[in-house]
Write a structure and sequence with these properties.
single chain; about 140 residues; mainly beta; eight-stranded antiparallel β-barrel; two-stranded antiparallel ribbon; 1 helix; about 15% helix
């Protein structure tokens, strides 16, 4: 019984803390964003973010902070398809974008090579649609 009271109190404090309009978390991008026309997905939490591309991903331990102009940029690491990499040796990547209501437009650049992996328009709570015919990601 005592454990359930502690858990209930923690949940209540979390909900109240998250709903405080003066909370600094209002400047953080959080949620799950996707597109009904692609398999790209962005998951952003207070402790970091991950952009899942078709056969690769970009991960960051940094929160996505939205500036006053609704734009953001966050550094991360790029993990290519099937590559078992030491995270410390993975190429650096930069996620840049803009938030417009429930839509995020995000671009991805590999810093070491300057390669642009594309620009994606993603919508909050939209689940990505897998393509049953492919692609087959190399190992």
């Amino acid at each position: 019984m005592r454990n359930s009271l502690v858990v209930s109190a923690l949940i209540a404090l979390t909900v109240l803390g998250c709903s405080d309009p003066s909370s600094p978390d209002q400047n953080l991008l959080t949620g799950r964003f996707g597109s009904s026309s692609s398999t790209v997905e962005l998951v952003a939490i207070r402790a970091g973010t991950e952009l899942n591309l078709v056969c690769s991903s970009v991960s960051s331990d940094a929160a996505v902070v939205i500036r006053s102009d609704s734009q953001f940029s966050v550094a991360g690491r790029y993990f290519g398809s099937g590559l078992l990499q030491d995270p410390a040796r993975a190429p650096h990547a930069l996620l840049r974008g803009k938030v417009m209501n429930d839509t995020v437009v995000i671009s991805v650049t590999i810093i070491e090579t300057g390669s642009d992996l594309g620009t994606f328009t993603l919508i909050r709570d939209q689940l990505p649609v897998p393509d049953p015919s492919g692609p087959v990601c190399p190992l």
